[in-house]
Amino acid sequence: MRCLSCEKLSYLIICKKCQNSFLKPILNKRELSKDFFVYSFFKFEEIKELLNSKYYFYGDRVYNILSNLTFKQYSNEFTYPGLITIIPVDDFSKNSFSHSAILANSMKKNKQFKVVYNTLKSTNRIKYAGKSLHFRKNNKRKFIYKGQKNIQVILVDDIVTSGLTLLEAKNILEKNNCEVLFALTLSDAKL
User: Fold this and answer.
1) Domains of the chain and any CATH numbers
2) Which helix (H) or strand (E) holds 87?
3) Helices (DSSP H) in 1-132: which residue ranges?
4) What is the pTM of this model?
């Protein structure tokens, strides 16, 4: 196969040379609401084409590479007093995989984290990609939460744009007596 970035022959969908040269994560921080922050690793434009791979059969391989370069490295260095539950935002399977579940899964080797799946689900399947803020505000995700209560949580998703999805997810978790510490995403569209 060929590397998605440089198009040279490679066993990996993104060769090691391109991973080391072009995919250098830098942790960024944005406040979505008072004392609620989202941390991200890339500017959206830097990895836009890679993020769009979630719509294709090979996207799981791309997301595995991105998650190992970012979420896995972050989780290896993270310390906090107590157990934290990692919840992927709407880990609905598209093309036989869930991109948010792949990101969360890369954090499970840290013993401080408990990764749970299929607990925070959107009942609205409308796609937000390329839609306006007005559209997003009028078509909420309508999350339901079927997980454990009274826990501390880190939310995981691939992109933060307006922040409405993460804020809606945080609100439903708080209604279930969960403390959302922060959110972690691959990219931030506002950087």
Assistant:
1) 24-188 (3.40.50)
2) strand 84-88
3) 16-22, 44-51, 59-69, 71-77, 99-105
4) 0.92
